[in-house]
Write a structure and sequence with these properties.
27% of the residues lie in helices and 13% in strands. With 299 residues, the protein is an alpha/beta fold. It has 2 domains: 6-146, Rhodanese-like domain (Oxidized Rhodanese, domain 1); 172-288, 3-Layer(aba) Sandwich (Oxidized Rhodanese, domain 1). The protein has 10 helices and 12 strands.
Amino acid sequence: MHAKPLISAAELQTQLEAKRPLRIFDCSFDLADPHAGRRQYLESHLPGAVHADLDKDLSAKHGVPGHHGVLTASGADAPASGGRHPLPNREKFALWLAQVGLSNSMQAVVYDRNGSNFCGRLWWMLKWAGHDRVAVLDGGLREWEAAAGELHSGDEPAHFQAGFELREPLVRLVDASAVQQGLGQTTQTVVDARAPARFRGEVEPLDPVAGHIPGALNRPFSANFDGQGRFKSPEQLRAEFDSLLAGRDPSSVVHQCGSGVSAPPNLIAMELAGFPGTALYAGSWSDWCSDSQRPVARG
């Protein structure tokens, strides 16, 4: 049985008071201002938290534009996906986890101040590294503050390096080739987490081509949360995904978004709803539309 995907502010406070071995990650970020997350972290963060930067820590750092504009590199620097935020390979990611003091036996807790958009990426990546003991702080920093949780400012003391060993992935990663082969097949249901106007191709603020993968269903990642920024109840999420899928096999779902960042909340929501084991196309639309030979749908 997998670890619970969520942890409440009260549960986390109990673990901190009991001095349980855990590592907290602040994943705050702003696509429009890549340095904002670091500034916000320095202003206030949970006790002992490590800042996990989307660009520096949770995306491949190296690579050059290759065929059809896809980021490429060789050897140890080769990213594990395409797109605007290519996944680092598992070995480089594991090295970073060890450097910030996460060991295989520790509980990891991830949060942000962006509606649980960016921390879902790290939740998924830890599962991808074979680390099951990871939970999203439900409601993020806002919920922690509402519970009168302690906050720190400035940098935290450096954590001792830990021994983190990669294990078998607990989640499924697929690439553009697999998605393209599955087009029109009942064995694949693509779910796009972008806002409806981007999905329909009416606007495209980030990528050179507007539209979506043919046959995809639209489920904006923000639809998973209530008015307080917490995930909706499992019962409500299940009803909403049942309606979206309309009889399609939940295990056929491949999640995507713009660059593999805002799709994980849909994946987490499906797990909460009792539909585990769905896949992530991490390259997402930014990878898909980089090849003009791939089909595009609008409307």
